[in-house]
């Protein structure tokens, strides 16, 4: 019915997403031109930096895709469990005998004749 360890996979993917996001923030803050270098060298550095940022963004997108697929699997499993539980409940309900309402009669009081 469900894959054992699905929660662990989700957890690991979430950690991976957080790690890549942190690395991406570091990369985005680290691209500064160095005044001592000539313009073409700064452009090459900038280009290399943009390639690295693009690579991290691709990794992040991939991690989010895996994460969402795992969440969809987990959600499908939850719906399967819900369906199974409904069926079990229906089966158990049908096994319970229906009690017909019975009248409770009060004992008749004896009246004394005088």
Question: Describe it for me?
Answer:
The longest helix has 57 residues, at 39-95. With 114 residues, this protein is mostly helical. The model has no long low-confidence stretch (mean pLDDT 83). The chain contains 2 helices and no strands. The relative contact order is 0.12. It has one domain (6-95). The N and C termini lie far apart (79 Å). The protein is rod-shaped and about 130 Å long.
Give the topology:
Layout: H1 6-29, H2 39-95
Helix pairs in contact: 1-2
Output the keywords.
114 residues; mainly alpha; 2 helices
Determine the fraction of residues in helical runs and give it as a percent range: over 70%
Return residue spans where pLDDT drops below 50 for at least 5 consecutive residues.
none
What sort of overall outline do the alpha carbons produce when their principal axes are compared?
rod-shaped
How many domains, as an integer? 1
Mean pLDDT: 83
Instruction: State the order of secondary-structure elements, H for helix, E for strand.
Output: HH
Task: Describe this structure in a few short sentences.
The chain is built from 2 helices and no strands. The protein is mainly alpha-helical and 114 residues long. The mean pLDDT is 83.
């Amino acid at each position: 019915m469900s894959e054992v360890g699905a929660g662990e996979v989700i957890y690991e993917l979430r950690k991976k997403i957080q790690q890549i996001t942190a690395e991406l923030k570091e990369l985005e803050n680290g691209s500064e031109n160095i005044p001592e270098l000539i313009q073409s060298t700064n452009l090459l550095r900038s280009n290399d930096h943009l390639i690295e940022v693009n690579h991290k963004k691709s990794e992040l997108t991939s991690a989010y895709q895996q994460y969402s697929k795992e969440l969809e699997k987990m959600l499908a499993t939850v719906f399967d469990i819900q369906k199974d539980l409904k069926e079990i409940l229906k089966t158990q309900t049908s096994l319970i005998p229906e009690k017909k309402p019975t009248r409770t009669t009060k004992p008749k009081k004896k009246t004394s004749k005088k």
